[in-house]
Amino acid sequence: MKRKIYDITYTIENDMPRFDAPWHPDVDITQIGYIDQVGRETRKITFGSHTGTHMDAPLHFVSNGNSIDQIPLDICIGPVTILDFTHFKKNQELTVEDIKNYELSSRIILNFGWSQYWKTNQFYSSYPFFSEETAQFLLSFGVKLIGMDTPSPDASMITREINNLDNYEDSPIHKLFLKNNVLLLEYLNLKTIPSNFSNCNLIALPLKLKGSDDSPVRACVYNDEELK
Fold first, then answer.
1. Which is more confidently placed, 162 or 136?
2. How far is it between the farthest Cα atoms of the chain?
């Protein structure tokens, strides 16, 4: 029996959703080489570092933090625990009480059932989010990578104050995790994995982009017990 691999990555394509901010460009995939003209197909690809399923490096919010090409790859590959919070309501806060009784590992993925909203107006609003106490609890446990099917661990209600870049209310959970070198794996497509698929292995490798704060990844999970 072949190993069953679940691809938990969104396809990068033209007209895909992106965060509504002026510094996030649209995806542009344009064919520039044609077999009947130059003997091969070639494409020019333009997208922002936070496009689709992607990984945040500390540099995203931490001055002089590690860039995506400097992160330890051993964090990106290995056992992961998937936590089922698909029963959560919109704008529900993830508390320590919600998570403290789970068996955690150094890599965790939280399934809020948010993949159902991909390519809808709902995706970027009202998603569940982490409390600061929960973030501190995960740090104390030693978690090194946190994946989620939402756009962010921060509340969508927080207003970005562009004129006050030191404002702590801008993405405080992002900042707390990243300054402690916890990698964030966002926009995971968890619609296809079985509901009882919890203790498995993760591969989520970013592009080796020198000096970048972030990178799209191809992420997948699999279970060694399915090997025969």
1. 136
2. 62
Its domain, for residue 114, covers 5-226
pLDDT at 166 over 90: no
Cα separation of 184 and 130, whole Å?
13
Closest CA to 202 of 51, 5, 3, 2: 5
Backbone angles phi, psi at 5, to 5 degrees: -110, 130
Count of all residues that appear for the chain in the document = 228
And the tokens for 36? 């009947």
pTM for the whole structure: 0.92
The CA-atom distances, in angstroms, between 101 and each of 45, 84, 112 are 44, 13, 17
Cα 46 off chain centre by: 20
The pairing of strands 214-222 and 199-206 is antiparallel
- Element housing 163 (H / E): none
Residues 126 and 186: their CA atoms lie apart, in Å, by: 16
Q: What CATH number did the domain enclosing 12 receive? A: 3.50.30.50
Which tokens belong to 141?
A: 């446990």
Domain count of the fold of the chain: 1
Look up tokens 């029996």; give the residue: 1
* Encoded tokens for 97: 């009480």
